[in-house]
Write a structure and sequence with these properties.
Largest sheet: 5 strands, antiparallel
Helix content: under 10%
Radius of gyration: 15 Å
CATH architecture: Sandwich
Strand order of the largest sheet: 1-9-6-11-4
Shape: globular
Number of strands: 12
InterPro entries: QdtA_cupin_dom, RmlC-like_jellyroll, RmlC_Cupin_sf
Protein name: Sugar 3,4-ketoisomerase QdtA cupin domain-containing protein
Number of domains: 1
CATH topology: Jelly Rolls
Number of helices: 1
Length: about 140
């Protein structure tokens, strides 16, 4: 198995425009922010704090996660090492390439996770068994 270097996966700054009259902020994701065309958008919410989501890898799909509200941790695993990144700002996102196992956990009350992905839903793109993931050739 060729291991993805998860140390290079980092938060991406999303343009934040602050209203000069103090009416809040606006963040924008346009064509040059992501290295893929967005084919699907979904969001997670009302996830209990003791629950986790994810628990899979993708063969081809790329994913960009944003904490629109609240916070949660994204555990990244390349089959050899693991690291955790906290998402807690709506103007920062996390680009997860294919070939990386991901788990989302420690959801705060009111957390909303927005997911922008590079493909429509395709069950054959998922690897849901960790042992299978560790032997898959990406």
């Amino acid at each position: 198995m060729q291991y993805i270097n998860i140390d290079k996966i980092a938060l991406t700054e999303i343009t934040k425009i602050s209203d000069p009259d103090g009416r809040g902020n606006l963040s924008v994701i346009e064509k040059d922010v992501l290295p893929f065309e967005i084919k699907r958008v979904y969001y997670l919410y009302d996830v209990p704090s003791d629950s986790s989501r994810g628990g899979h890898a993708h063969k081809e799909l790329k994913q960009f996660l944003i904490a629109l509200s609240g916070s949660f941790d994204v555990v990244l695993d390349n089959g050899k090492t693991r690291r955790s990144i906290t998402l807690n700002r709506p103007n920062k996102g996390l680009l997860i390439p294919s070939g990386v196992w991901r788990e989302l956990e420690n959801f705060s009350a009111g957390a909303v996770c927005l997911s922008l992905v590079s493909a429509e839903y395709d069950e054959t793109d998922y690897i849901r068994n960790y042992d299978e993931f560790k032997t898959f050739e990406f």
